[in-house]
Amino acid sequence: MVEQLLGVTMGIADTVMVTTIGEFAVSGVAIVDVINNLFIIAFGALATGGSVVVSQYIGRRDKKHSTLGSRQLVYASTGAALVITAVGIFLRRPIISSVYGAIETDVALAAETYFFISALGYPFLALYNAAAALFRSMGNSKVTMLTALLVNILNIGGNALLIFGFRMGVAGAALSTLASRGLAAVILIALLMRGRYRHSAVSLSGLFKIKIDLPVIKSILGVGIPNGVENSMFQVGKIMVSRIFTSFGTAAIAASAIATSINSFSYMPGNAFGLGLLTVVGQCAGAKDNQAAKKYTARIMKWGYVTLAVINGSVLLFMTEIVGIFNLGPEAVQLLKSYLWIHCIAAPLFWAPAFILPNALRAAGDVRYCMILSSVTMWIVRITTSYIFAYTLGIGSTGVWYAMGADFVVRGIFFTGRWISGRWQGKKVI
Question: Is 350 part of a structural domain of the chain?
Fold first, then answer.
């Protein structure tokens, strides 16, 4: 959870520092972050697949295959990252224009600069995600937490130096993030190769003696591809609804970007619990202990509800002070407050079953159901309803946030029903 908090802090630090340049800079970074997330999903999907496979081998106490799976995850992540990097670098301009259409010139220039530098960091991000997933698979998230702390310190310091000292603007923010992520990836990979973890169940010892094991990679992809498709559909949906904000001007884009950053704090514990479920339920599934999986999932869901209520309640209580941190105009401030009110009411009630619980299903191997349901609800509920609320009913950009709440409700109902039915039991991963 601390690691998730540090990750969110890193994003907010970038946003706060970039706001000093102007709303065009915040908008440019926000546009690229949405596109970046679509590419980054591939790394997260592979890491999830590797985490589930390795966790189940650990649950079986099969060290030979858990270490083999660890190396295969790194190979697959590196290959995917190199391809995506090439796509991002050479096609960044047509990607931005095809997704967002005509945007203001200063916003477009900031977006292109940020996109180019971000793409250079994809391989480091992929390696970091893979290594962090491996540490979590063996129940050791302390190392990734400390590494995330180091990354935050370097990123904030680098932002201050490059944005304010050298006046590099959005390029400074991107370069600082690139350098800090690169160092984090090197540290984690080195620890798994040569540190005290080299004899653990997820050792990367002998990583450079490359040997591809297709059956193991197939198992990783068996979880990773459906998860990647699911997350890709989710991100494509976010891109489509984000075009609504561009049609309502720079103030709406900036307000939505900042609201998303603030709301990330409420997702932080839920995302952490979800990562925990991948490891815990994965090991239970590997040991064929479904009762333990149910017990631990119930406990984690309870804490998910509690933390979501506390964090979102705090945002509502201190909303004026939080919004005042950002250098926004009156229109953007008003929009930001509207977005926050909607989210802080919907999230504590409906987010946990919609986004924490599916990780238990994935860890047990029920990935296709998660993929199909998430894709269907994104297109039918969030995207369609967003356009109806924003344009047909004339609610404006705020309608997108109402549609988001409706998406939480529908997802939560179906995922809860799936878990209670027990149809996830008996799914095979390895």
Answer: yes
The whole domain housing 182 covers 2-421
**CA-based torsion, 218, 219, 225, 226: positive or negative:** positive
How far apart (Å, rounded) are the C-alpha atoms in residues 102 and 81?
A: 29
Q: Is residue 310 very low, low, confident or very high in pLDDT (cuts 50, 70, 90)?
A: very high
Q: For residue 428, is it within any domain?
A: no
Q: What is the pLDDT of residues 230-267, one digit of tens each?
A: 888 887 787 788 778 878 888 888 888 889 878 887 88
The reply to whether 172 falls in a domain is yes
Q: Is residue 427 part of a domain?
A: no
Q: How many CB atoms within 10 Å of residue 420? A: 9
pLDDT digits 0-9 by tens, 260-293: 878 887 888 888 899 889 999 999 999 999 999 9
Among the listed residues 192, 331, 309, 164, the one whose alpha carbon sits nearest the alpha carbon of residue 255: 331
Q: Measuring CA to CA, which residue among 40, 184, 32 is closest to residue 122?
A: 40
Q: Which residue has the tokens 């301009």?
A: 93
pLDDT digits (tens, 9 = 90+) for 314-337: 999 999 998 888 878 888 899 999
Cα gap 75→45, rounded to integer Å? 14
Buried b (16+ CB within 10 A) or exposed e, 167-187: ebbbbbbbbbbbbbbbbbbeb
For helices 92-100 and 23-59, the axis angle rounded to 10 degrees is: 100
How many domains does the chain fold into?
A: 1
Round to whole Å and give the CA distance between 15 and 24.
Answer: 12
The per-residue pLDDT for range 151-200, each reduced to its tens digit, is: 889 999 999 999 989 989 899 999 998 999 999 999 999 999 987 888 78
Torsion angle of alpha carbons 21, 24, 26, 29, nearest 10°?
A: -110
Q: By the 8 A CB rule, do 51 and 278 touch?
A: yes
Checking 400-405 for CB contacts under 8 A at 24+ apart, the result is 400/241, 400/244, 400/245, 400/256, 401/259, 401/338, 401/339, 401/342, 401/343, 402/342, 403/241, 404/342, 404/343, 404/346, 405/342, 405/343, 405/345, 405/346, 405/350
- Collapsing DSSP to helix, strand or coil, 288 comes out as coil
Rounded CA gap, 18 and 29, in Å? 8
Asked whether the CA dihedral 267, 29, 44, 137 is positive or negative, the reply is negative
pTM of the model: 0.79
